[in-house]
Each structure stands twice: as structure tokens, then as C-alpha cells.
Amino acid sequence: MEKLVIYTDGGCLGNPGPGGWAYFILSGGEETNGSGGEEQTTNNRMELTAVIHALNAAKLNYPESVLEVHTDSQYVQKGITEWINRWVRNGWKTVNKKPVKNVDLWKALKDVSDTLKIIWKWVPGHAGVEYNEACDTLVKKEMERYQ
User: What is the pTM of this model?
Assistant: First the structure.
């Protein structure tokens, strides 16, 4: 079974403000990427959006692969690996009984991730990790479209 390596990033100028998201999928020496943005959004929404788009692209093109997803967002990494099952059990409420923020994106992420084999990895942002930096460059280009 093939293993794909995926890098994702999202960002925002201001929070909220113009935002961008990007991903790279690495497979057998080849790379594909995608990016986009929104005029008014938040950093966390862009981080989640990047992962959702990357997983949907991987599912379409590499449905049987094991995915190693690298994100510099602890919000995404901890949310999907530690918090989400409790949120679901609690009717999409936090431990403090408050509604989960960005629930629309968390539900979309759960839906796609439940159908895939994923290894979640956190990487430090702005630390010279090649494809994390490449994602960041695409994110900045997307944000600039809205300035």
C-alpha cells in the first residue's frame, strides 16, 4: 500500500481577515498542490480548510493509500486526534458545554478522515520544514489576492 505525505497550512491577515490555505501531496517523487482563500475568515478556519481540501484530493486520486498528514496547527492535530470523539459524544459541545467553534469544518474533516487511513503529524511552523514553508508561500499569495 502506497504512503502519501501531505503538508497543509492556513493563515489569515488579522483574525478575522483575508485568509489563505494550501497543501502539497507527495507521492512517488511527484508532487501536487492546491490553494485558495477567502476574503473574510479566521486562521483556524483556513487551517481546517487546507486539510479538508488535501484529504479530498488524496481520496479522489489515491483512495487506498496511507496518508501521513503534516500540519503546523496544533488546533487541527489535537482536534482530530484527541478532542473530536468527545465533541461528537457531547453533541458537538466542548467540555465546558459550549458549541464547538468551526463545527461545519470539523464535521467535514471527520467525514472525510473517517474514510481514510491517516497518520497525523505536527510540525513546527516557520522552522525550515521544506513543504511547510512551500505551503506558507502559497497561503501568503492567496491572502494577497484580497488586499
Answer: 0.96
